[in-house]
Specification:
Layout lengths: L2 E3 H8 L12 E3 L1 E2 L10 E2 L13 H6 L4 E5 L11 E4 L2 H15 L3 E6 L4 H12 L5 E3 L9 H7 L7 E5 L7 H9 L3 E4 L7 H4 L2 H9 L10 E5 L3 H6 L6 E5 L9 E7 L2 E6 L5 E4 L4 H16 L4 H8 L10 E4 L5 E5 L5 H13 L6 E6 L8 H10 L7 E5 L3 H8 L8 E4 L2 H11 L5 E5 L7 H8 L2
Parallel strand pairs: 3-4, 4-5, 5-6, 7-9, 7-10, 8-9, 10-11, 11-12, 17-21, 18-19, 18-21, 19-20
Antiparallel strand pairs: 1-2, 13-14, 14-15, 16-17
GO biological process, one term: regulation of cell shape
InterPro entries: Mur-like_cat_sf (IPR036565), Mur_ligase_C (IPR004101), Mur_ligase_C_dom_sf (IPR036615), Mur_ligase_cen (IPR013221), Mur_ligase_N (IPR000713), MurCDEF_CellWall_CoF430Synth (IPR051046), MurE/MurF_N (IPR035911), UDP-N-AcMur_synth (IPR005863)
Pfam families: Mur_ligase, Mur_ligase_C, Mur_ligase_M
Length: 456
């Protein structure tokens, strides 16, 4: 993590006050949450809708923080304390993180896309860790605050940083990539998330493509070559680029792809190795191929990539497999949802080998804009007879139920207005050899269904 004196930090961020009394005091690590305080941290206060972080500055310094930012607009700064007055706390945080990134001898990989960002980040970490000391974005620290905090948490001996970049509007990826200055960047896909803010898939592709604006001139841009919107947008890009996807027109594509237990065995056109991916879904093979192209760019051999995949651990609630109280298999994919990722979940459930029934438990997909009802209905019509029962919860998911009834008998599609009723139904009907896949946007808190099934 960053270790600098208050004087050095003050110079980097352009402090508006005299810090000479504390200039040689060492600060290490940066926090925005006082509950995560360890001695010597730099505390960055923000003004929220309900809470102003400046009210905690004196207390956090008395409890051992090394220093704190203080926005000029917050009024007179506390006297006699190691406070660095700045014009804007967020700008100061971002400025400090960019300076720290430039001081480190670290290669950076930027990861964005509508779906699969976090999984791809985890795969990249597994592949690159076979050769390098790698640090990655933890959890969903992928926005204008989270990414700078991730950079500032990098150990000084880090050789590679894998940084996830999320967004909800135009200009946000541009801001992140210009802080991170990646040596390689990947767009996993273009889906429908954030249509509410960006208006169309074309708008989403434009916003995601901003990642190349910070990409180093000698860097590598990797993208899903099966996506026409990216094919069109990349025409004006003059840097080095490679593609992955299902079709043979891509730099890397699968020549073999076979479900294997709760994973997938696959081969690719550019290697004689056979790879085993210990997570479910053809779409994750696509994510893996994109990660493999970047690992290859960083000098990781295919044999080492196979070893790396065997160590893969995913961030929670992304195709997380567990066993329920009755012995049933539960697949928790309730962290995020869009039409494309929900269809991928349907594809996955239909291919799982089981002697029991396949239950698809799905809730609302959020932030889809004015056509949200049509998107939900379309997802419902995507269900085939290979799924035994579709259980929906939430106002928008009722349209999934309507669509599913066009392909399945009505008694195999049940909509619930109450989550408790859904849970009670599952606890009665599910048997030990059944498989239950739970899919939803994070705001629907469908992990509660998973936890309920795991309990006696």
């Amino acid at each position: 993590m960053i270790k600098r004196t208050i004087g050095q930090i003050a110079t980097i961020v352009g402090a508006l006050n005299d810090v000479s009394l504390f200039k040689d005091q060492l600060v290490h690590g940066v926090i925005i949450d006082t509950r995560k305080l360890t001695a010597g941290n730099l505390f960055v206060p923000f003004k929220g809708e309900n809470v102003d972080g400046h009210t905690f500055v004196r207390d956090v310094l008395e409890k051992g923080a090394g220093a704190a930012f203080w926005e000029k607009s917050a009024g007179p700064a506390p006297e006699g304390l190691p406070v660095i007055v700045v014009e804007d706390s967020l700008v100061a945080l971002q400025t400090l993180s960019k300076a720290y990134r430039n001081e480190l001898n670290v290669k950076v990989v930027g990861v964005t896309g509508s779906n699969g960002k976090t999984t791809t980040k985890d795969i990249l970490f597994a592949l690159l860790s076979t050769k390098y000391r790698v640090h990655k974005t933890e959890g969903n620290y992928n926005n204008h605050i989270g990414l700078p905090l991730t950079i500032l948490s990098l150990p000084e001996d880090s050789e590679v940083a894998v940084l996830e970049m999320g967004m909800s509007g135009f200009g946000e990826i541009r801001e992140l990539t210009q802080i991170a200055l990646p040596d390689a960047a990947i767009i996993t896909n273009i889906g429908e998330s954030h249509l509410q803010d960006l208006g169309s898939r074309e708008g989403i592709s434009k916003a995601k493509f901003e990642i190349v604006e910070g990409l180093k001139s000698e860097g590598l841009f990797v993208y899903n070559g099966d996506e026409p919107l990216l094919q069109e947008r990349v025409k004006g890009y003059g840097g080095s680029k490679e593609t992955f996807g299902r079709h043979s027109s891509n730099t890397m594509y699968p020549t073999k792809l076979v479900p294997s237990g709760f994973g997938t065995t696959f081969s690719v056109n550019v290697s004689d190795e056979e790879f085993h991916l210990p997570i479910l879904g053809e779409h994750n093979v696509m994510n893996t191929m994109g990660a493999m192209l970047i690992a290859k760019f960083f000098g990781v051999g295919f044999e080492d990539m196979q070893k790396g995949l065997s160590t893969l651990k995913l961030t929670g609630m992304r195709l997380e497999v567990s066993t329920g109280a009755k012995g049933e298999t539960i697949i928790n994919d309730a962290y995020n949802a869009s039409p494309s990722s929900t269809k991928a979940a349907i594809d996955l459930l239909q291919t799982i080998s089981t002697t029991g029934k396949r239950y698809f438990v799905v809730s609302d997909m959020l932030e889809l804009g004015p056509n949200e009802e049509a998107f939900h209905h379309e997802v419902g019509t995507y269900v085939t007879d290979d799924i035994d029962c579709v259980l929906t919860y939430g106002p928008l998911s009722s349209f999934i139920a309507e669509g599913a009834k066009e392909t399945l008998p009505e008694d195999r599609v049940i909509h619930f207005d109450e989550k408790s009723a859904l849970i009670a139904y599952l606890k009665v009907v599910v048997k030990s050899d059944d498989t239950v896949l739970v899919k939803a946007s994070r705001g629907m808190k469908m992990e509660e269904v998973v936890l309920a099934l795991q309990k006696e």
